[in-house]
Amino acid sequence: MPDSCLISLHIISNQGIDGFLTKPFDNIELRAKLHTINVRKRLKQFVSEPVYKKIEKSPGALKPTSHEVSVLFSDIRDFTRMSQQVPPDKIAAFLNNDYFTPLGEIAYQYNGTVDKHIGDSIMVVFGSPVECKDNAIRAVKTGIKMQKRAKEIDNILYEKNGLRLKIGIGISTGKVFSGILGSLRIKEFTSIGMPVNIAARLQGMAKEGEILISETTYQQLPGDIDVETLPSATVKGINQPITVYRVKV
Asked: How far apart are CA 56 and CA 59, in angstroms?
């Protein structure tokens, strides 16, 4: 865990459940407590071990908050066509073994939180639920390593079964709302806000092998990460075009 990480998280243990046994029965309160515990168990699958240990040991975990994060979206190029030509079981194995797992591990190495998988997309958040000061740097380094790893896997897959792993990545930085959201039956810890929308938009613009980043991400990068400026792009919800940068991999 980088020294810059600041802790703003809270612990729930079996003692938290046991406390209800000594109180008057309150179904709503108990249900809310169980929802939080279930979210924590699920969250362990999507964060690195150091981050999860910080969550366990710190007060205020998963409380709704507004803070700055960096958001990364990755998506497989030409996946729809490819999925129509390959049996479902092979597509599932491809996504799980050759995409979600190896690229997710890279996100964990940089203490990113895999927020969700959406079809063939991966959303990773840096700076939530554990806040850090170097979110943009870790997000871009994750993107670079993801592209290099995807290229290695793509070469192996092409020789083995003809499948391809060519991805585009978008990254944006800014303030989001993070917290436990969902219905009474399904809840998850997630982040929402304009940086999420911009990262998704940049990912959609990125060609295979590319990493596109926003101005806010670029401003926080050190000089040793090589980038080039691209033409501005429009994003739904933003009146003015945004400046786009491409990271050289």
From this structure: 8
Contact 187, 39 (CB under 8 A): yes
Comparing C-alpha atoms, which of 80, 210, 95 is closest to residue 143? 210
User: Hey, where are the domains in the chain?
Assistant: 63-247
pLDDT in tens, 100-131: 999 999 999 999 999 999 999 999 999 988 88
pLDDT number for residue 14: 40
pTM for this entry? 0.80
- Give the chain's length: 249
Rg (Cα) of the chain, in Å, rounded?
19
Joined together, the tokens standing for residue 66 give: 């507004």
Q: Which residues pair with 167 in a beta bridge?
A: 76
Q: Identify any residues that bridge with 178 across adjacent strands, giving them in sequence order.
A: 65, 191
Task: Among 3.30.70.1230, 3.30.450.180, 3.30.70.1050, 3.90.1170.50, name the CATH number for the domain at 63-247.
Answer: 3.30.70.1230
Q: Contact 74/145 with Cβ under 8 angstroms? A: no
Q: What is the pLDDT of residues 190-218, one digit of tens each?
A: 899 999 999 999 999 999 999 999 999 99
